[in-house]
Amino acid sequence: MYRIFLFFVLVCFNNHAQIDKVSEEVYPIFPICKLIPNDKQNQCFDESMFEHVEKNFKYPQTAWELNLESLVRIRFDIDEQGKVDNIVANSSVVGISFIEKEALKAAESMFEVAAANIIRSLPQMNPATRDGQPFRKTFQISVEYRIPKQLDYDEIDKAPTFSECKDVKIDESKECFENYITNHIKKNFRYPKRAAKNNIEGDVFIQFEITKSGYFINFSTIGPNKILEDEAYRIMSRLPQVQPGEYLGKKVSVVYGLPISFRLN
Predict the structure, then answer these.
(1) Could you identify which of 77, 191, 217, 231 might form a hypothetical disulfide with 85, taking C-beta atoms 3.0 to 4.6 angstroms apart as the criterion?
(2) Taking a C-beta distance cutoff of 8 angstroms, is the pair 80, 71 a contact?
(3) What share of the chain is helix, strand, coil (3-state, %, to 5)?
(4) Residue 8 pLDDT > 70, yes or no?
(5) pTM to 2 decimals?
């Protein structure tokens, strides 16, 4: 449900334990990393941690509905038995001011609980070792909870809606949107005379943004010839205003692209 927010998760690792430079230290070992050589364990740990955050990331529902955003810093230990311990989360709510301190604390708590639950669900690991001896190791990560302002077309729940599609169900909105685009191209397509005269043909990929107000802007084209690119732009710039796309009930700007084929018969 919240998978899209993976693109807004920031993870960084800082080792707070004292490290003896002449000692051989191995990071805690995730179950999936057990067959990896010791000199690759740090990288495997980082990658596995990132994947774990991705898989378990959930935006607090109340915070989502209230348009609250936050950066949460979490500090935790992995002890001598490979278990997570001493989880401390600190949230900084951004983009909004609270008159009452209790309201701010409640908002911070929502994010802190959500972020701490990500760490709490970590699997038991082989503990970190130094010169072959297990020891407690401290880490810190930062998780960003950010409401998206712009998404790719395949990430949204509801496609931008043309007037002809206003009565379709959400799960059918993309099909209706794409059918409208296809019909629009067929209706407005014309082969540029200069391109035909010079035997210019090929595919033009055109990409654009559909804003939260339903306007088509920021067109870009890639094709074999500027004549064909200009024609692709002319066709798509004639699209009418739409109702904006949505993700989890919120209006978002959508990036969409498609190829337009120019072939001489």
Answers:
(1) 77
(2) no
(3) 35, 30, 35
(4) no
(5) 0.75
Q: Does residue 72 register a pLDDT over 70? A: yes
Q: Which residues have CB under 8 Å from 125's CB, separation 6+?
A: 28, 29, 30, 31, 78, 82
Q: Bin 218: left if φ > 0, else alpha if -120 < ψ < 50, else beta.
A: left
| Gap between the Cα atoms of 111 and 84, Å rounded | 19
Residue whose C-alpha is closest to residue 9's, from 43, 55, 75: 55
Element (H, E) at 102: helix 101-120
Q: Residue type at 230?
A: D
d(CA 81, CA 79): 5
Per-residue pLDDT reduced to its tens digit, 42-65: 899 999 999 999 999 999 999 999
**Within 10 Å of residue 51's Cβ, how many Cβ atoms?**
14
Check: CB of residue 202 under 8 Å from CB of residue 248.
Answer: no
Which parts of the chain are beta strand (E)? Answer: 25-26, 69-78, 84-94, 129-130, 133-134, 137-145, 150-152, 202-210, 216-222, 245-247, 250-262
CA distances from 181 to 23, 157, 220, 263 (A): 63, 18, 17, 19
Q: Give the relative orientation of helices 226-236 and 173-188 as an angle to the nearest 10 degrees.
A: 120
Residues 6+ apart with CB under 8 A from 127: 28, 78, 79, 80, 81, 82, 134, 135, 136, 137
Query: Do 180 and 162 form a contact (C-beta atoms < 8 A)?
Result: yes
